[in-house]
Amino acid sequence: MPKNYDTSEAIEIAPDIYWVGMHLKDDPFQCHPYLIKNDDESILIDPGSMLEFSEIIRKVKSIIDIKSIKYIVLHHQDPDLAAAVPEIEKLINRDDLLIVTHSRMSLLIKHYLITSSYYEIDKHDNRLITSTGLKLDFYTTPYCHSPGAFVSYEPDSKVLFSGDIFGGIEESWEFYADKSYFEKAKQFHQEYMPSKDIFNYALGKIENLDINLIAPQHGSIIEKKYIKNLIQDMKDLDCGLYIDDKYNLKLIDTIQKLQDKEKTIKERDLQLLEQSKRVEIGEMIGNIAHQWRQPLAIMSSTVGILKEKNNINSLDKEDTAQKLEKMEKRIAYMSDTIEDFMNYYKPNKGSSYFKVHKAIQKALDILNMSSNSKKIKINFFIDPNIEVYGLINEFVQVIVSILSNINDIVKNKNLSYTNITISLFEDEKYTTLTIADDCGGIEEKNLNKIFDPYFTTKHQSMGTGLGLHIAKMIIEDNMNGTLSARNGNSGAEFIIKMKHAN
To answer: What is the helix (H) or strand (E) element at residue 91, kind and residue range?
Structure first.
């Protein structure tokens, strides 16, 4: 960029884009309007106040006929940017003149007695395309420093008209910024941007653009070679409320308290999971013992018969072979039982799609429950093709917890016959699994407590109150779903709803 320029005249900063401002002597708060030359649809950006009115109009007329301006862009509603617009309207004198701004600001700008129609960017996909093909893209930067603030980007020249963002307060004003410009812009942003979070939200949008030149409303024009470092320095800047020591200390204290609470919750959940693992080990041993009791009794009886026949020398080769074959099958069954339980409790970190009906069947096998039982009838309404995403072993644990509770109720109430209905269906948003029984339901006083840790209606020797709590954690923390319970006409119903995985 040339270093010798005459600010008493318009300065072309990019092809057909001009600075048409006025250098106010000994004023650190320079205001900069810009003109985009575009045949009969030229664009005037942030024209300023009446302080610079005459000089700006002179410079515009040195480039174009002022009546060729069709658009006036106002990045916010402050008087240093918009106060001269009513007088400029009179000079342009076009019925189709449009004030380009955000709808949040047109309500305020009208108080300058502006008479032209508004082109509200948020109602036009944040874009303006003229009949000549010239395009402006608008990016909203709310509360920097106005609720409806935005910046304008001309993609052909890659010039960003940034409004207040990147503005500076300079005692010794320079037309083009140098590498020390951040120090000149620092005070302005600390005082005018409401907070670091809000400012960084705006900067995040801007840093994604391919920018050759930044033309702010205040301060100096910024060339490409300085833009990246300047944005990074701006992102690290404390501003607005953050420069208030009391607010900053209060914010830090609040963040620390939230972090402490999060740490406490994580520690509690880890303790619960460890206790749950210990409970699961006990349950696993109990379930294995239950699964093994009958085959062990049969094999013990078979061994006794074979020993007795051997003592009296009456062993039959074929009969012995049959009995040994049956014993081998039962030993294989017992081995498979061990394998099933080991796989069930083995940590599995790899999530994947799995068929829900397979998980249900695995849970029933672990609990030795079947639809052919004399005391429990299980009714299935299941689409076997429905899949969900997650850890199948964890999902099996959830089903086991729910069915174990039903099983315990059947035993405790000594019910002679029980129906369990398992239904699985899906809609556009959710996959839903329901497990319902006809065991009389959950007491209303306990309905909202059954998922609480350590809550149990069983004797201490029969339960810990962790099963359903852990089940809820698995569904809601690991599978993007919900687990709830309610009472129906004849019993309780557990509902698992899982959002479809992306």
So the answer is: helix 85-92
Closest CA to 395 of 437, 436, 363: 363
Are 230 and 220 in contact by the 8 Å Cβ rule? The answer is: no
241: tokens are: 């409320």
| Beta-sheet pairing, 135-140 with 150-154 | antiparallel
CA contacts within 13 A on the Cβ side of 305: 13
- Tell me the two tokens of residue 91: 């000079």
Residue-wise pLDDT tens digits, 378-430:
999 998 999 998 888 788 878 888 888 888 888 888 888 889 999 999 988 88
Residues found in the chain: 502
Contacts of 407 (CB under 8 A, 6+ apart): 367, 369, 376
Strand partners, 161: 152, 215
Q: How many helices (H) and strands (E) does the chain have?
A: 13, 20
pLDDT score of 293 more than 90? no
pLDDT at 177: 92
Is 356 within 8 Å of 386 (Cβ atoms)?
Answer: yes
Please give the model's pTM, rounded to 2 decimal places. Answer: 0.53
C-alpha to C-alpha distances, 462 to 288, 406, 455, 467, 468, nearest whole angstrom: 17, 14, 12, 12, 14
Pair 399, 452: CB distance under 8 Å: no
Q: Residue 221 CA to chain centroid, in angstroms?
A: 37
> How far apart are the C-alpha atoms of 174 and 194, rounded to whole Å?
27
Report residue 289 as tokens.
Answer: 């013992």
Cα 136 to Cα 138: distance, rounded to the nearest angstrom: 6
User: What is the spatial order of strands in the sheet that 127-129 belongs to?
Assistant: 127-129, 135-140, 150-154, 159-163, 213-216, 222-223
Residue 19 β-bridge partners = 11, 34
Residue 233 is given by DSSP the state: H
The pLDDT tens digits for 488-500 are 888 999 999 998 8
- Neighbouring C-beta atoms of residue 502, cutoff 10 Å: 5
Q: What is the pLDDT of residue 294?
A: 61
Rounded Cα distance, 323 and 325, in Å: 5
Q: Residue 276 — φ and ψ, nearest 5°?
A: -65, -40
